[in-house]
Amino acid sequence: MVFENHKNVTDKFIVVGDRVLIKPKSVDDRTKSGIYLPPGVQEKAKIQSGYVIKSGPGYPVGPPSDVDEPWKEGAEGPQYIPLQVRIGDLAIFVQNSAYEIEYEDERYLIVPNSAILLLIREDDDLEDYLH
Asked: Does the keyword Chaperone apply (predicted)?
């Protein structure tokens, strides 16, 4: 899949917070009737899709209060609520919320988790969630 070719990129990038690194899916430059579209037309679409390359740790959560549970030992370091995305998921997201970057002649998008509308997962475990 797409994400396997970008393994070296994932080693160099550290995605922070609730953000997701996405490789945009290549779009057709023609309409169904065969008319060629200029490059700016596809970029003006409100919804875009791409493959998840890497994700941040999630939403930061404050430490539990010692007043509520004085007997409980506090966890060391920051704690996060993890994101739903997995590497390789096809994400459908709001284009206006994405930040475009270019690295080694490749185009990537940094998208906040809140802008992702739908995930398409090619996984055998998906059937366990549906039943």
From this structure: yes
